Amino acid sequence: MISFTVNGQPARVDVEAEKPLLWVLREDLNIVGPKYGCGVASCGACTVHVDGVPVRSCSMAASDVAGKMVVTIEGLGQGTLHAVQKAWIEEQVPQCGYCQPGFIMSTAALLKANPKPSDKDIDEVLSNICRCGTYSAIRRAVHRAAALLAGAP
Ligand code: FES
Ligand code: FES
Question: The sheet that has 47-50: what strands, in order across it?
Answer without folding.
Answer: 9-13, 2-6, 69-71, 47-50, 53-56
